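Changelog note: in this version the structure field was regenerated for every chain. One regenerated record is shown below for reference.
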Amino acid sequence: MAALGAAAMVGLAACSTTTPAATGHQPTGSSAATFLASLHKARPIASTVPANGDVNPYGVVVVPATVGKLVRGATLVSNFNDRSNVQGTGTTIVEVSPTGTRSTFAALGSLPASEPCPGGIGLSTALVVLPGGWVVVGSFPAGPGGALPTENPAGCLIVLDSSGVPTETWTNTDINGPWDMTSVATASGAEIFLSNDLSRPAGDSSTPPSGLCTIVRVDVSLPAGGPPSMTGSTVIGSGFPWRASQAAFIQGPTGVALGTDGTLYVAETIGNSVTAIPQAATRTTPVMDGTDTLTSGGSLNGPLGLTTAPDGDIVAVNGNDGRAIEISPGGRQVTTVTLVAHGAGDLFGVVPTAGGRGLLFVNDGTNALDTATTG
């Protein structure tokens, strides 16, 4: 995957209106005054390579409030590869200030003996900051030689305090290859929405080359003065295809974004589509893949990262060509721009800037955090 290189200025291509090849909703909206259409400059902010040499930045999240080592408006980035570029072996989270100063927020060489993670540590795209400065990051560790892990279930969610110290891990049968996630605060804590990219029959330690996986809601309690705790989990989406990939480690449902009406959107890399899961915070039964497709085809080309734009639209970034697509809640692909020219394999995590006047995204090709802004 990514190799260390010099970050270069990348210009946005001219915006274009597109129509999806197929959609589960009637196309609505217009390309005028869309979020992506307002972006006219892209530039690197900082390298994401820490002192230990980890590469391949995947997850990205903006810090909402200052506490401990966390600074409001800074960006956390998780690294998936070690310095030898072996996938599923990255152990670091870096913090990048708005002015481009990089520091290491967490270096997870090991976990507390009382808090194991099946398979070990390999930080994925799954990265959120909960109220109180608690950071939750997904671990999807590689097996020997960079193969998929044989543990079943594999991986965990690692909870860090605001100083980057691991305090606990969350594991159960619903957490299996955590790949990406988003969260929302509630009156009593938070809800985490997680895409899994592995599945195997209970007790089976063999790892097939493909299968069907799930989207899960994790209920989190946030007691005053204490660490968060996982109080439950519910499968809210099922039947999503995944497959092993020598080039990309694994492919399957990746980016998740929560819409303003409570619908969870899921980027499906294999299906080249975006799926909708209505009433994600309260539903008790899973939506089967293929029953509610927001959009497919069109400008989508192996979508990976997904986020909600300030205007309420959904933004997907392609893994195969370095482009971003803005999608209305009605399913119309209203704007397409190029974030990284010839950017196959470069895009993954994506999120709006703290002020909503731009887009932050990792660039795996240069191991950097980049931004595209309105000014």
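Spot check on this record: The chain is about 0% helix and 45% strand. The first strand starts at residue 41 and ends at 47.
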